[in-house]
Amino acid sequence: MEELIRRAARDIAGASYAVALTGAGISTESGITDFRGPKGVWTLDPEAERRAYLSYQEFSNDPKEWWQNVLAGQQRRGSLGNLEEAMPNAGHYALAELEKIGVLKCTITQNIDSLHEKAGTEHLLEYHGSVAKLRCISCNARFRRDEFDLQKLLEENKLPPRCPKCQGIIKTDGVFFGEPIPSDVAEQSLEEAWKCNLMLICGTSAVVFPFANLPRVARQAAGATIIEVNAEPTPLTEERISDYLIQGKTGEILPMIVEEVKKIKQVG
């Protein structure tokens, strides 16, 4: 493993445009349960997965009723626990540091937990949205949750919230099953995949599309070097999309890669 870490550091330090992709595996070390792992939320509770597949249709059919139901149950912890209280781990901080020293140009994440943002990553694309934000379904404008007094809107019978920019309907930013990936994030993510000459895959099973297509775009369109840091091999490993896999915990491996990169770049 030590030689693979040194190899990854050399590849990352030498890349002109490196991008990271992250999935649930980087956040499980912050105590956030994944969905499809051996002890995942949906593995243990298939009914919860069935309900999740209904959410977008319910919102589309009646946004007001959907918001009323959400706010009525907002004091109950969700299936992933209290994401607002979760804190970044060493893997999140390692990617933020790679960005700070100039070798990582963008991080694209599947995760809705906002932990990359908390860790200090600035060039961030939240592919499936963020639990900390709300989004207009018409113009894609995003807002912090505290920009709306949702409880007051409920009490005054003024749901669903309306976008102050275009008066479109506001929903939570997280992307539901059956909901298209917001066009701005989808387009920017594709652009990053086209531009990069190295992609660092961290903690994703690479089975959820269209996110899982980004490494394939980077490989086929840009000829990028693809490095995986994952607990287990993935379809990217098996299909030889990735150049090599460093198997283990992102919170342990990524900080080691950062230290090697800093030696190469001769930065503090």
Brief account:
The chain is α/β, with parallel strands linked by helices and 268 residues long. 40% of the residues lie in helices and 15% in strands.
How does this model look, in words?
The structure is a single chain. This protein has 268 residues and is of the alpha/beta class. It has a domain at 1-32 and 87-128 and 181-268: Rossmann fold, CATH 3.40.50.1220. 40% of the residues lie in helices and 15% in strands. The strands form two sheets. Strands 3-2-1-7-8-9 form a six-stranded parallel sheet, with helices on both faces. A three-stranded antiparallel sheet has the order 5-4-6, with no helix packed on it. Helix 6 links the parallel strand 2 and strand 3 (124-126).
Over the alpha carbons, how many angstroms does the gyration radius reach?
Answer: 19 Å
- β-strand percent reads 5-15%
So, CATH architecture of the domain at 1-32 and 87-128 and 181-268?
Answer: 3-Layer(aba) Sandwich
User: How far is it from the N-terminal to the C-terminal residue, by CA?
Assistant: 24 Å
- Mean pLDDT figure: 91
The total strand number stands at: 9
Low-confidence stretches: 75-80
Q: Just give the CATH class of the domain at 1-32 and 87-128 and 181-268.
A: Alpha Beta
Question: What is the H-and-E element order?
Answer: HEHHHHEHEEEHEHEHEHEH
The CATH topology label of the domain at 1-32 and 87-128 and 181-268 is Rossmann fold
- Determine the fraction of residues in helical runs and give it as a percent range: 25-40%
Write out key terms for the chains shown.
single chain; 268 residues; alpha/beta; Rossmann fold; 11 helices; 15% strand
